[in-house]
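dumping this here before i forget
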Amino acid sequence: QVQLVESGGGLVQPGGSLRLSCAGTGSIFQLNAMGWYRQAPGKQRELVATIARGGSTNYTGSVQGRFTISRDNDKNTVYLQMNSLKPEDTAVYYCHGAVVQLKRDDSGFYYYSTDDYWGQGTQVTVSS
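structure:
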């Protein structure tokens, strides 16, 4: 059973910092592209940042220069360092990933399968 487990959310004052973690657990061969999304109350889920397995990154404009996404492939973990937090960063943050598993079909043939997984979400609240 594969899971993406997030941690690190909480309440922080404006200007403060938080570090989110997303750990892949279960029968994972490797994690490919990973990303962080967020959803504020009454709004649609939006992409925050992505990171390829090789380390190339992309950010949405509102977090550029304040947030840093990184990963540890040996630990199947991705991080989101959030600095200079603003009240408008308040949201539930979700980890998303392309998880590669080694599976076996009914004929006994082994193959690699890539599937999308979401974490359960972690609340980030920026307020004084």
